[in-house]
């Protein structure tokens, strides 16, 4: 698996990627790359970096805590309506909605990063006209993450290409 990772990222050793300390991650990443090469029949050129996931950066919430806190679905009827995500989500794009969901599911641990994020939210909250202008600009943008993924995997269709073009010229 190490060879698969080194070959993919064009390096002579795992150390050059800064992954020497992540033996389990190396095995997982190598297995995932091998699976993708076997199933996607694609060069995977769009995968240009590998970033270790650090448990210390995010609060660890087990399934019981996630369920009881009703972060992304309610405990009883398993619906979004009534959960924390439902209360907070006024996102105008699918990309924003996914980012908000990840913020809720992986709460930060570092006080400095939390305060930075809070400041950014306050900035937008307090500047109504700027917020409305931003909404106007981002509303016509399609889901770039999904579009780029489809195009990278060569499963995009002409409609996806037009949506990408329109998003980039907006």
Structural account:
The protein is an all-alpha fold and 170 residues long. The chain has nine helices and no strands. The mean pLDDT is 90. It is globular. α1 (2-9) crosses α2 (23-40) and α8 packs across α9 (158-169). The chain starts with a helix and ends with a helix.
Secondary structure elements and their pairing?
Blueprint: H1 2-9, H2 23-40, H3 63-69, H4 84-88, H5 94-105, H6 111-126, H7 128-138, H8 144-152, H9 158-169
Report the sheet-strand fraction.
under 5%
Low-confidence stretches: none
Q: SSE order in H/E notation? A: HHHHHHHHH
- Terminal CA distance reads 42 Å
How would the global form be characterised?
globular
Q: Please work out how many helical segments DSSP would assign.
A: 9
Could you give a quick summary of the protein structure above?
By secondary structure, the chain is mostly helical. About 60% of the residues lie in helices and about 0% in strands.
List keywords for this structure.
170 residues; mainly alpha; 0% strand; globular
